[in-house]
Amino acid sequence: PGSHPAPGSHCIPGASPGHRGRAEGTALGQEHSQGQGLARELQRRGFGCLHGVDGSAGMLERARGTGLYRQLQRCVLGREPLPGPAEHYDAVTVVGALGEGQVPCSALPELLRVTKPGGFLCLTTRSNPSNLRYKAELEAALQRLEQQGAWQKVLAQEVERWERATEEEESVQGTGYISGVVYIYRKPRLDQGRRERLAPGPSPGEAGAVPLESRFWGV
């Protein structure tokens, strides 16, 4: 737990000033068995109401000891519904749990269900050899949902030194690390979804693109 130093957090806009009229932004996360990195960064960006889920009672107890989460519940993502109402969260994160033998790709619609229109989803997976089949299945599922208009891709970023490899054959060119990828998606607003799907604008890093913190500050 906690081996990921908040990957993707720089791509999620802050909860304020766009949340005027509300006390704070609300985020739901499953972060590498409830690590602390992304949760701390989300809190710094104004998401003061953090909820967390994990399939392990021990990991939930460890997360409870950090004092970061307002609510923690046991949930095996992919086997049962998330313990939250529809369209409730400004941001939903799954960091370090999307992988072979972990959370299945079939859980993606459930993540979308609890995300507010205009909200963000931050997902990650590993790119080491033993996870490549799962990664291909995940990216196919992500693309299908995008084609259906369920969300819009904001970012897909490869990270070479994602985490330390547990086996040498899994590492990138003998570096001792495995690579990974961060995906950021945005659920369309109810009144703007069609226009956003037709005219998504430049991607991060392209000519004319503006920082995500500016473009989506009002979410």
TrEMBL record:
Region (Disordered): 1-37
CDD domains per UniProt: AdoMet_MTases
InterPro entries, per database record: Methyltransf_11, SAM-dependent_MTases_sf
Superkingdom assignment: Eukaryota
Domain Methyltransferase type as annotated: residue spans: 38-122
Alphabetized Pfam families for the sequence: Methyltransf_11 (PF08241)
Annotated GO MF terms: S-adenosylmethionine-dependent methyltransferase activity
Protein name: Methyltransferase like 27
Source organism per UniProt: Anas platyrhynchos platyrhynchos
Gene: METTL27
